[in-house]
Write a structure and sequence with these properties.
21% strand, 4 domains, 5-stranded antiparallel beta sheet, 18 helices, 4-stranded antiparallel beta sheet
């Protein structure tokens, strides 16, 4: 823009004040030079206007209005039209050429060039068609399905006269001729704007009850979609899509935002979460076996062993109870089920139980003076809900609502009280574990507390809440 302005200014000075110098040194060429300077001045003014249009119209107004950059091809086309019109006006004004003659000459030259550059012309017109049809725009995430080379996926980073440029997931840049965009299927993940669906498939041993697998995977999917780039709405879903002699195949469908995350990382987030729940609950993967093996005892897996395993995986009990104490607590716990939308506990209510989730997921929400409900976490299979309130007698600090059909292990006050009566030393062990948990939360919230203060406070609350067990301890 600076160079254009400088050249325009010099030509204007030459046109206004350079005539005496030209008559002195080149008297026989005065008229011709003045005509050329005038034509050059008209062209420079047109280029200057085009530069202003690029800066203030294309790069500011249009970008702010459309939310993305205008393809360079369209900007270049406008530039060519403006310059061509300025040349035609200059020749008509200074040389006396008719616009019809200029047009006829231009058509002849264009025809000769078109024959010589036929493949390039095809790319140019394909690029114009892409812009006219709004097939894709800079910033869109697309997959071009090429029959010979395979699919190419990436973000559109540029659209030129001949090629479209894609930035691939590894950061490299691919140049694809425009005619391939118009002659092959193009999948645009960014159109229309909004979340798009992805799907991952998981195979599980066909002998495991499908309803149990579905609820476990579904609960973990609800938890995973809280990750950045994934979308909470529409809600994820789990479908059984195939059954064969070895496996039941489950499709986990979820939604993601193409403007925030690419498909492969989005699938990775979901698969990592699903793998965790498979390993945690030891769900058997499909294996084709030659030797004869008895089927797994599924009733046993959902019986006493399920209760015992759930308690042993809960951090509070894993860190404090021995095998005998775990078995005693398991005998006093019971499994419960909730339908989707049921409330397990409500903020402000008195506490009389905690839940260890076996299948499904819950939404943990807080109600404040500013907002009615605000989700702070999602708990899925293996997580514990409500332990601090149960152990200290404090009112519920949050509301837990079932996001799916939910199975959970309920541990109530009487079960803990019986355990404390039999093993009074657990008062100190429980308070020490809960104090450490509270200190970790306080550190995350930048609150300064000492171990002794927190442990003493929790121990006092436990002794007050479980007063019968505490009196038995003293006696």
């Amino acid at each position: 823009m600076v160079v254009t302005s400088l050249v325009t200014f010099l030509l204007l000075l030459m046109r206004l004040f350079g005539e005496p110098m030209i008559r002195h040194y080149l008297p026989e060429h005065v008229d011709r030079i003045e005509r050329f300077v005038t034509i050059g001045l008209i062209i420079c003014l047109a280029v200057f206007i085009d530069r202003l249009g690029r800066r203030f119209y294309w790069q500011r107004h249009v970008k702010r209005r459309r939310g993305r950059e205008t393809p360079k091809l369209l900007q270049d086309l406008v530039t060519i039209l403006i310059v061509a019109m300025s040349v035609a006006v200059g020749l008509w004004w200074q040389e006396g050429l008719t616009l019809t003659g200029i047009a006829a000459t231009s058509i002849g030259v264009a025809a000769a060039i078109g024959v010589a550059l036929q493949p390039d012309i095809q790319d140019v017109f394909s690029g114009l068609a892409m812009n006219y049809e709004d097939t894709c725009a800079i910033g869109d995430w697309v997959t071009v399905q090429l029959p010979d080379q395979g699919d190419i996926s990436g973000r559109v980073s540029g659209l030129s006269w001949r090629s479209a440029f894609l930035t691939l997931e590894d950061g490299s840049r691919a140049s694809i001729p425009n005619h391939l965009f118009t002659s092959n299927p193009v999948l645009n993940y960014s159109r229309p704007r909004g979340a798009k669906q992805l799907e991952v498939k998981i195979g599980v041993d066909v002998r495991v009850p499908s309803e149990r697998v579905r609820e476990m995977l579904w609960g973990e999917a609800f938890k995973a979609v809280r990750s950045p780039g994934l979308s909470r709405e529409p809600s994820p879903e789990v479908l059984m899509t195939e059954i064969n002699s070895d496996a039941g195949i489950y499709a986990v469908r979820f939604w993601y935002d193409p403007d925030q995350i690419m498909p492969i990382p989005a699938k990775s987030i979901m698969l990592l979460s699903l793998q965790k729940v498979l390993l945690q609950h030891e769900l058997p993967l499909p294996v084709t076996q030659v030797e004869m093996t008895p089927p797994p005892n599924l009733e046993l897996a959902r019986g006493a062993m399920e209760v015992r395993d759930a308690l042993s995986h809960a951090g509070l009990f894993r860190a404090t109870l021995n095998d005998e104490q775990l078995n005693a607590l398991a005998a006093n716990c019971k499994r419960v089920e909730f339908a989707r939308g049921d409330v397990l506990m409500r903020q402000g209510d008195p506490a009389d139980s905690m839940y260890i989730l076996l299948e499904g997921a819950t939404s943990i929400t807080l109600s404040t003076e500013i907002s009615a409900l605000h989700e702070v976490a999602v708990s899925a299979a293996g997580d514990v809900v409500g332990e601090m309130s149960l152990m200290t007698g404090a009112s519920r600090t949050a509301t837990a609502t079932a996001l799916t059909r939910l199975r959970a292990l309920k541990v109530d006050k009487h079960a803990i009280e019986d355990l404390l009566k039999a093993s009074p030393g657990l008062f100190e062990l429980f308070s020490r574990f809960l104090a450490q948990r509270q200190l970790e939360n306080a550190a995350a919230a930048n609150k300064k507390q000492t171990v002794q203060e927190v442990e003493s406070d929790i121990l006092a609350k436990m002794m007050s809440f479980f007063s019968r067990a505490f009196r038995a301890r003293q006696s």
